[in-house]
Design brief:
There is one protein chain. This protein has helices at 3-15, 32-45, 61-66, 68-79, 103-123, 129-163, 165-175. The chain is mainly α and 189 residues long. The chain has one domain (3-26, 67-188). Helix 5 (103-123) runs antiparallel to helix 6 (129-163). The longest helix is centred in the last third of the chain and has 35 residues, at 129-163.
């Protein structure tokens, strides 16, 4: 869940008059279903290794090593003062690839986290037992939603993407800005 976080960063930068000229996203190596299991396991237990057919949690070592291309492009761009033109330095290096299947889920999740976060803060203070109760209630809500609503939402979103291909591609391209998913400069770095 990074797409909506990236949008929040864009808004915060815009609010202070800053310009975002690049973004780089490295994502977990597993499928959405796998990361749904491996990431909480990693966060709650510290166990990152593969298990029961699930991949190792987190970003693969190979992906991290391949990320050096961004450092090289940024270094070269800064040496040539290219950042002063306010254009991406990592464009064409496959810096950001949005999985269009996750856009709607992220929007729904972000809305849920925002609403529940406001409720929890409004009705309890940090460290209070009441806050723990609200957090457990939200956890139960999440589990119930995941079991009941998520499968239905996935079906609806699959149909939506088939019907609205152009709109979905446009939205995907927007969220990949400014650096984008193109890979036409990979041979340079």
């Amino acid at each position: 869940m990074w797409i909506m976080a990236q949008e929040k960063v864009k808004m915060l930068l815009n609010a202070i008059g800053a310009r975002l000229i690049d973004n780089i996203v490295l994502v977990d190596q597993g499928s959405s279903l796998a990361t749904f299991i491996t990431t909480p396991r990693w966060m709650l237990t510290g166990k990152k290794e593969a298990f029961w057919g699930f991949p190792k949690a987190g970003i693969s070592e190979e992906e991290i090593e391949r990320a050096s291309r961004f450092a090289q492009a940024i270094h070269q761009g800064l040496q040539n003062d290219e950042e002063k033109r306010f254009k991406p330095l990592c464009e064409g290096l496959g810096a950001v690839k949005v999985d269009e299947k996750l856009i709607r889920s992220e929007k729904i999740g972000t809305r849920s986290f925002t609403i529940w976060g406001k409720l929890i803060r409004a009705f309890s203070k940090q460290g209070e037992m009441k806050r723990h109760a609200f957090i457990w209630l939200y956890t139960l809500f999440l589990v119930a939603i995941i079991i009941t609503v998520v499968p239905l939402n996935m079906l609806i979103q699959t149909l939506y993407r088939k019907i609205n291909k152009t709109a979905v591609e446009k939205e995907k391209a927007f969220y990949e800005l400014p650096s984008g998913a193109n890979t036409d400069k990979l041979k340079e770095f």
